[in-house]
Design brief:
alpha+beta, Aminopeptidase, 2 domains
């Protein structure tokens, strides 16, 4: 019925259409609003950025009947793990085993490299949860998806946060950010931070916060029609992470960025409520094999999904 192979650059438009239609259809069929409000073309963000970061790391399922793309999944090899990115399957082929076949191939790649696989997926999607749990993935963190309506005229509720210690990140900060991530959760994704700080596509902004001359937190954000999120982020203090979040939010007047806030940090959650955050979904961070031990604060994102 279908065959799996590596996506080609000329597949970008078909991938964007599949991501756009299948994601929106799932949310609408479960009584929720569409995730992607613009045209399918906006979702070229995914194949373009992921081809920049990880060339040749997208698997597609192609219909043997007509050659159309009916499934896709991006994966992101890093020194410490392989991250499973956005997975999509055509609703017309529900129950055909597309997602299972894509997952099996990526797990096989991870096994060959002796690396754990990580992902962040919606707690609302029980079919997705079952797909992963049947293959021995297990949750290790819960995140509250919170959106923040930033006033058109700018400005957020006045909260006493150390924003004066926040500054824009530079390429000279990349090694220190990577060191911080390794200390907090044994994770290295140096080239992700370099890519976001370089920002050649013009989508990202990155900030760091310092304490006595040392970087103790970092936060990125993306402002694109297909993704307006705060994160990824990492840090050692709830108030410092909150200062970074507030700084990034202020860049998006008139918009409603989303951030994934760790539910096991009630202090940070409370500050987010005070900043006007409202819950819209829950997500689970899951791992196949060794899960990271988090000694600090980690905020994942959906672009790039390199958790």
């Amino acid at each position: 019925m279908f065959k799996i192979h590596t996506a080609k650059p000329e597949d970008a438009a078909a991938l964007a259409s599949l991501i756009h239609s299948s994601t929106n259809m799932w949310y609408e069929s479960h009584g929720r609003e569409k995730i992607f409000l613009g045209p399918a073309e906006d979702c070229r963000l995914f194949p373009e950025v992921y081809e920049d970061l990880d060339p040749g790391c997208c698997l597609v399922a192609q219909s043997e009947a007509d050659g159309s793309l009916i499934g896709s999944c991006f994966y992101h090899p890093r020194k410490t793990h392989i991250s499973l990115g956005i997975m999509n399957a055509s609703s017309q082929f529900a129950g055909a085993g597309i997602a299972s076949a894509l997952l099996d191939d990526i797990v096989g790649i991870a096994e060959d490299r002796d690396l754990p696989v990580r992902l962040v997926s919606s707690a609302l999607n029980l079919d997705s949860f079952s797909l992963y749990s049947r293959r021995f993935f297990h949750p290790y963190a819960v995140y509250q998806d919170m959106f923040f309506r930033v006033p058109e005229e700018g400005g957020l509720p006045l909260i006493d946060l150390p924003t004066e210690r926040v500054r824009p990140a530079t390429l000279d900060d990349v090694r220190d950010i990577d060191r911080l991530e390794q200390e907090i959760w044994q994770t290295s994704r140096e080239r992700d931070w370099r890519y976001m700080i370089e920002n050649t596509r013009g989508y990202w902004h990155c900030s760091v916060i310092e304490r006595k001359g040392e970087i103790t937190g970092a936060m990125a954000s993306i402002g694109h029609p297909a993704s307006n999120m705060i994160g990824p982020g990492v840090g050692t203090s709830s108030t410092e992470i909150a200062a970074l979040i507030a700084t990034e939010l202020s860049l998006y007047p008139g918009r409603a960025p989303v951030a994934l806030i760790p539910s096991n940090n009630p202090k940070l959650v409370a500050i987010m409520y005070a900043l006007g955050g409202r819950n819209c979904e829950l997500h689970l961070a899951q791992s196949l094999n060794q899960a990271p031990i988090i000694d600090g604060i980690v905020m994942p994102t959906f672009m790039p999904e390199t958790c």
